[in-house]
Amino acid sequence: MKKIDISVIPGDGIGKEVMPEALKVLETVAEVHGGLSFSFKHYPWSCDYYIEHNKMMPEDGLDQLKESDAVFLSAVGDPNLVPDHISLWGLLVKIRREFEQVINIRPAKQMKGIQSPLVHPNDFDLIVVRENSEGEYSEVGGRIHRGEDEVAIQNAVFTRKGVERAVEYGFQLAQNRRGHVTSATKSNGIVHSMPFWDSVFESVAEKYPDVKTASNHIDALASFFVTRPQEFDVIVASNLFGDILTDVGAAIMGSIGIAPAANININGKYPSMFEPVHGSAPDIYGKGIANPIGQIWTGKMMLDHFGEHELGNTLLQVIEEVLQDGIKTPDIGGTSSTTEVSDAIVTRLKTLK
Ligand code: NAD
Ligand code: IPM
Ligand code: MN
């Protein structure tokens, strides 16, 4: 029996609604497999936890998580309770950084059973590799000078090592896909770090002569995601560019509520963290209508991570079958609840046993 230990952090808002549903689905997946079992350890770290303890997680929180094979997180942030910069730096971003999860992979594809807002989605199937540890999200120099001449300064830090490993990851991924990598850039020199990004991209590309490349300015690229997403295979992007681009990727699929993501630790020293693209959605929290598919598909990425590709693909197929049956939450035009969607997925999975 293959046993996988998972740290579970539902976090805030709809995270608390979609996480139990995704766990239910993973339990069923394990039953269908027969030779796989998950052990879930639950952590209540969230903005509610902060109100009680004045911190987002205990001092030894990372040591506790370190023991597991993976972290399964939903969403962090409840701006009505705790300012975002405190909750995010104290939990989500802290784990990404301390566990050296330097790559964030975020697929987007035309899903069966969901109407893409695009008139011609043309079966697009792309994956954004987002640099996850530096760039515009650097901790260096970020400060606000108050006073009459108020000014905010944020330094974007790009290291050769950081850019190289993200770009390499993209090329390797492309070799197992359709062999094409696009660099998201702003190489007209207005953003000073981007010509550096370009030069690293070009030097990595030389090592992969079998992979075709393209380079697009981020503004144009965001528009191409809308006008011709089918032309993209792998896109490598800096931290902020990747963040924005993947919300566009989610939107062309039909909803941010279905978009999955994985924060990957590539040196094997720490667990990776699986966490959907969406946030805690305070506007719909408590209504029972949050789309659980983003969290469930993120679970599929976790299965892939542990080598269970066949099972992962079966899960994605079952998700699409349920969508084709019209069992959908309101964000994608349906009338079903969060639980109705996950129950339908569980029921279909059980028929495969
Ligand atoms: P959001 O993703 O929470 O919500 C954006 C919009 O998408 C909202 O209208 C919401 O209702 C909708 N939406 C999101 N997930 C959905 C789902 N599963 N089903 C149906 N609709 C869904 O982004 P936001 O409003 O910018 O941020 C809210 C909070 O979440 C903030 O505190 C923010 O910092 C945090 N956040 C956290 C993460 C994370 O933990 N990974 C990601 C993004 C935002
Ligand atoms: C995401 C989120 C986070 C990010 C925030 C909440 C820090 O938007 O995971 O896409 O910007 O990385
Ligand atoms: Mn985001």
UniProtKB/TrEMBL annotation:
The keyword Oxidoreductase applies. Its EC number is 1.1.1.83. GO terms for molecular function: tartrate dehydrogenase activity. SUPFAM superfamilies: Isocitrate/Isopropylmalate dehydrogenase-like (SSF53659). Residues 5-345 form the Isopropylmalate dehydrogenase-like domain. Its cofactor is Mn(2+); Mg(2+). Belongs to the isocitrate and isopropylmalate dehydrogenases family. This is D-malate dehydrogenase (decarboxylating).
